[in-house]
Amino acid sequence: MISRFDDLFIPDGDEARRWAEDELANPRYADAKPTWFDLVARDIGRFLADLFSSENGANIGPSALIIVTVFIVAALIAALVIWGRPRSSRAVRRARGDLLGESDDRTAAQLRSDSERSARAGDWNTATILRYRAIARSLLERDLIDPAPGATAQSIARDAAAVFADEAPALRRAAVAFDDVRYLGRPATEEIYQDLAATDERLRTRRLEAVPA
Q1: Residue 8 main-chain phi, psi, to 5 deg
Q2: Is the dihedral of CA 147, 149, 155, 157 positive or negative?
Q3: What is the pLDDT of residue 68?
Q4: What dihedral angle (degrees, nearest 10) is formed by the CA atoms of 139, 144, 147, 150?
Q5: CA angle, 50 as apex, 45 and 54 as ends, to 5°?
Q6: Which segments in the chain show pLDDT lower than 70?
Q7: What is the DSSP string of 71-111?
Q8: Given this model, what pLDDT does residue 77 score?
Q9: Which structural domain, as residue segments, surrounds residue 126?
Q10: Residue 58 falls within a domain, yes or no?
Q11: pLDDT of residue 73
């Protein structure tokens, strides 16, 4: 039952429990739930911290500590090779789909394809916006940037320029084009889109070791 108090509905115990169960059933909580590997890695970290504490260290010889440490490190490396690294909060954040101020779950490939479709239709405004989103998504998917929530096109361009310094001018032009069309209402042109698309194509094939010093 729900009681009424000054126009405020206050649930009783059963109703509150049902609301909590419904809320926790939301899939977004499953995305943030740690995996078994996350839990094991956390427990091992705690074990090592306790093992090397001054109190325990006095009771265990240095040779034993070295052997135990080598064994645990080897086990962790093997686990990383087989199952991959533990999920980070950044991965959970990316799963939410926030991209340049909007919720967008499309991959870089999907955004790129949609932008090309708009370009073929002569819709340069949409094509330009989607192509810059494709650049941003591609950088995120490759873990090359880690923008703060609500990051702007300009901040993403700066982060990317820190990785690909020789592409800094092109990235700035791309960010300006996105802002001009998206926020200032300035029309894009085929030339603007093609410049942005060329930047995207170069970045998507680049590797960090191939970036000039």
Answers
A1: -110, 125
A2: positive
A3: 66
A4: 10
A5: 135
A6: 1-40, 44, 47-68, 78-97, 208-213
A7: HHHHHHHHHHHHH-PPPPHHHHHHHTTEETTEE----HHHH
A8: 76
A9: 100-210
A10: yes
A11: 73
Residue 93 inside a domain? The answer is no
* Residues 106, 175 within the same domain: yes
Q: What predicted TM-score, i.e. pTM, was given to this entire model?
A: 0.56
The answer to the question of residue 91 being in a domain is no
d(CA 87, CA 70): 24
Residue with tokens 């650049």: 135
User: What pLDDT is attached to residue 141?
Assistant: 92
CATH code where residue 128 lies = 1.20.120
| Residue 168, both tokens | 């800094």
- Burial of 43 (C-beta count, 10 Å sphere; 0-12/13-18/19+): exposed
51 and 27 share one domain: no
